[in-house]
């Protein structure tokens, strides 16, 4: 398991310097570390976070948006009509709820459809692994920068240490 502070540092080491998003239990340790560092701007909704990140990008920042995968459904129109059309890169750190069907029922549908949904809307994605975490983060940033679009880094439960063991 990757410690949250190590993971946050790896994102900052590759240039991510603006963080916003919506709380989630899987992302809780990361968000807590970002708040300790004073670099996290909370949002009310995922589409709002994407808009905040777009503004940060236009101001010269390298943004990341943290959200649960159900929130990806909430902000899909924003990602397509703003980020994809106007070539606004962004790291989307998305917790993959319902991935293994061992989650609350409301997470299962999105958990099963996640990869197909991202492929359908042509948003590149990679699953974060403990073994290759630094490479995974670098790939997401490099791909987002090169293609000038948002790219998703999927985070399964137990890969990065959360607030609660």
Describe what you observe in this structure.
This protein is of the alpha/beta class. It has a single domain, classed as Rossmann fold (3-Layer(aba) Sandwich), CATH 3.40.50.970. 48% of the residues lie in helices and 17% in strands. It contains six helices and six strands. It has helices at residues 4-13, 28-36, 46-58, 69-84, 105-120, 133-147; strands at 18-21, 40-42, 63-68, 90-95, 125-127, 150-155. It has a six-stranded parallel β-sheet, with helices on both faces. Helix 6 links the parallel strand 5 and strand 6. The longest helix is centred in the middle third of the chain and has 16 residues, at 69-84. It is globular, with a radius of gyration of 14 Å. The termini are close together. The mean pLDDT is 90.
């Amino acid at each position: 398991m990757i410690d949250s502070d190590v993971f946050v540092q790896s994102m900052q080491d590759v240039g991510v310097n603006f963080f916003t998003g919506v709380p989630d239990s899987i992302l809780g340790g990361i968000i807590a570390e970002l708040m300790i560092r004073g670099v996290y701007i909370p949002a009310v909704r995922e589409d709002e976070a994407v808009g905040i990140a777009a503004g940060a990008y236009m101001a010269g920042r390298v943004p990341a948006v943290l959200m649960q995968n159900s929130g990806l459904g909430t902000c899909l129109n924003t990602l397509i009509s703003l980020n994809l059309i106007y070539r606004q890169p962004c790291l989307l750190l998305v917790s993959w709820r319902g991935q293994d069907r061992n989650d609350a029922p409301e997470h299962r549908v999105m958990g099963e459809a996640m990869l197909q949904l991202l492929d359908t809307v042509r948003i590149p994605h990679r699953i974060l692994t403990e073994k290759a975490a630094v490479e995974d983060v670098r790939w997401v940033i490099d791909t987002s920068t090169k293609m000038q679009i948002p790219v998703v880094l999927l985070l399964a439960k137990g890969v990065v240490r959360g607030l609660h063991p």
